[in-house]
TrEMBL record:
Function: Involved in chromosome partition. Localize to both poles of the predivisional cell following completion of DNA replication. Binds to the DNA origin of replication.
Residues annotated as domain ParB-like N-terminal: 39-128
NCBIfam families: parB_part
Gene Ontology biological process: chromosome segregation
Keyword terms, alphabetized: Chromosome partition, DNA-binding
Entry protein name: Probable chromosome-partitioning protein ParB
Organism: SAR86 cluster bacterium
UniProt family annotation: Belongs to the ParB family.
Bias kind Basic residues: ranges: 22-32
Gene3D superfamilies to which the protein is assigned, alphabetical: 1.10.10.2830, 3.90.1530.30
Region (Disordered): 1-41
Length: 288
């Protein structure tokens, strides 16, 4: 119960004392600023949230939810805000989609007053608190709160109800390549695999991620393969002393790891960062 209360702190802070689920219509009173009211709303008047942080919807689960709604109705109201003659969804898209499939004409909803930015903030918080989001969706939700609302990791920790270390580890997943992030989103590899891949060079990480999927390797299998070097790697030319010294000097100057990949005067200079705060610091130091 304590964990559930902690997860709800962020939404409670944004919504104030929003009324509990109550599908019966009540006599409406004049709304005070930042208050919320509950009512039955025509589904046809609700448009989806353009800021929805969830990118993947499991159609099978939505159909299962629709079956439940046919039998028991919508237990928990969705959250909307007034927009023109209709409403815009803030949170509860799975319930809204399932209600449409179930053939409902109306749905219980809490109507709140929220600006565009507040609507986005609530939508992200509501989604990252759900346990059925994949790890990448959660990490992107955290990153949007940092980028668009200037949340610090401490504020994220307080709002979401998770340790700061958990927030930091989640954000680190976004430093993986797009291919690996796609594998995580598709449940092809686990967050446990991803944490190991974070410690590898980019090309090797992708090679091992592919191997994990093809051979259905467990996290322990991956650890063992890396320890015993039970995989094919390309032989790299050893770095010269000048390259090593230059990498060290640049890393010290920028405060981030710098890698130089040189091949006969051509190559890549790679600067690693694990948050947009670190990136801003790097840009400031090189005066771009």
């Amino acid at each position: 119960m304590q964990r559930k209360k902690a997860l709800n702190k962020g939404l409670e802070a944004l919504l104030g004392d929003a009324p509990k689920s109550n599908v019966k219509k009540t006599q409406q009173k004049k709304s005070k600023p930042n208050t919320a009211t509950s009512d039955q709303i025509q589904i046809s008047k609700i448009k989806t949230n353009q800021y929805q942080p969830r990118s993947i919807f499991d159609e099978q689960k939505i159909n299962e939810l629709a079956t439940s709604i046919k039998k028991h109705g919508v237990i928990q109201p969705i959250l909307v805000r007034k927009e023109g003659e209709g409403f815009e969804l803030i949170a509860g898209e799975r319930r809204l989609r399932a209600s449409k499939i179930a053939g409902l004409k109306k749905i219980p909803a809490v109507v709140t007053i929220a600006s565009n930015t507040k609507s986005l903030e609530i939508a992200i918080l509501e989604n990252v608190q759900r346990e059925d989001l994949n790890s990448i969706e959660v990490a992107r939700g955290y990153q949007r709160l940092k980028d668009e609302f200037k949340y610090t990791q401490e504020q994220l920790s307080a709002s979401i109800g998770k340790p700061r270390s958990s927030i930091a580890n989640s954000l680190r997943l976004l430093s993986l390549s797009a291919k690996i992030q796609e594998l995580i989103s598709g449940d092809k590899i686990s967050e446990g695999h991803a944490k190991i891949l974070l410690g590898l060079e980019a090309n090797l990480a992708e090679t091992m991620a592919k191997k994990v999927v093809e051979e259905k390797m467990s996290v322990r299998d991956l650890e063992t393969a890396l320890k015993t070097k039970d995989f094919k790697t390309t032989t790299k030319k050893p770095k010269t002393r000048d390259e090593i010294n230059l990498e060290s000097a640049l890393s010290s100057k920028l405060g981030s790891k710098v890698t130089i990949n040189d091949s006969k005067g051509k190559g890549k200079l790679i600067i690693k960062y694990f948050s947009y705060d670190e990136l801003d610091g790097i840009i400031e130091k090189i005066s771009l």
